[in-house]
Design a protein that fits this description.
Tumor suppressor candidate 2, two-stranded antiparallel sheet, about 110 residues, FUS1, mainly beta, three-stranded antiparallel β-sheet, about 10% helix
């Protein structure tokens, strides 16, 4: 539950310490060293990874479909087939307004 959080990766940006009790593995040493150098990380997120894709024509959308004609019992029927190949992710997108990080350890509410 909540698998998208960064705590599962042994990384806690707001306290500057490692999330687990185990020492860092070789592949994680570089990212943990970078996090430790930033002692007071900001709770705000300014960018996110986009869920949109470009197709071969340069169109931008979440999903792409092509219309195919299926002949069954002498009748032609049009169906939509989803395209999975040759799609390029849009990449990182700057947010209009900063958001609070999902792992920020403070509950924000009014009583």
């Amino acid at each position: 539950m909540g698998g998208s959080g960064s705590k599962g990766k042994g990384y806690w940006p707001f306290s500057g310490s490692v999330g687990g009790d185990e020492p860092a593995k070789d592949g994680q040493e570089q990212s943990l060293a970078r996090v430790r150098s930033i002692r007071n990380a900001t709770p705000f997120v300014f960018t996110r990874r986009s869920s949109l894709y470009y197709d071969e024509d340069g169109d931008l959308a979440h999903e792409f479909y092509e219309e195919t004609v299926v002949t069954k019992n002498g009748r032609k029927k049009a169906k939509l087939k989803r395209i999975h190949k040759n799609l390029i992710p849009q990449g990182v997108v700057k947010l209009n307004h900063p958001r609070i990080h999902v792992d920020f350890p403070v509950v924000i509410c009014e009583a």
